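Continuing the series of single-chain predictions for the mutant panel. This is the parent chain; the variants come on the following pages.
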Amino acid sequence: MSDGAVVLEVRGRVAIVRLDRPDKLNALTPAMTAELAQAVATIDRDPELRVAVVTGAGRAFCAGSDIRTLDDYATPWDFGQRADYGDILRRLRTPTIAAVNGAAVGGGLELAMACDIRIASTTALFGAPEIKLGWIGGSGQSALLARSVGPSNAARMLLTGDPIDAATAAAWGLVTEVVEPEALMDAALALAETIASRAPLAAQMAKVNLHAAASMPLDEAIALERHLQTVTLATADADEGRAAFAERRPPEFRGR
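Parent structure:
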């Protein structure tokens, strides 16, 4: 399918979002971005879906936007006002895991960084090559990269445009784990199942807290965390967690 697709697969409490345009390294078209938005909305509407795993078909994770579609925008302003796939994925309430199976470059790097956790195959590459084409990334690439790998390493990637391999990405803190290609989805799904077994409202609240704290002064971040802790303590899941602890049994969280 030259136009590509975004495929949503459900496995119990885990949603798998797969970019399916392998012949073009899963480069995203506007139509695929719209499909991604639909997948995100579907996941957030379903209380039974507690984790989303994002991955790519074939040998790449995502090569970013299909450069050939850039000429479809009448002006740079029109391009800047388009629906942005990084923004779409960041709006997902559900915790997300990027299973990076190959090249994650340009917007593909941004898409991976829009996920909460990243696991990489040994074949993965991470790069910000926009400078080689005359522009820079625009979906939080510099800010998110600096937070993940540090300002100096981020500057090296952004100013050279050269990619780093999975081992370097792990050493720099961009990914949490590197596994062999055949073990990637099993590792991502095992982690997803672990997260799915936890209290879903608390997981969503933790995600909100992490995102907010990244841009807040320390005192404000701690105050927000204490407020969110109070909110989660008022849930039925918190009651169930305490009861299960006292009764020495696994909790049955219901997202209430």
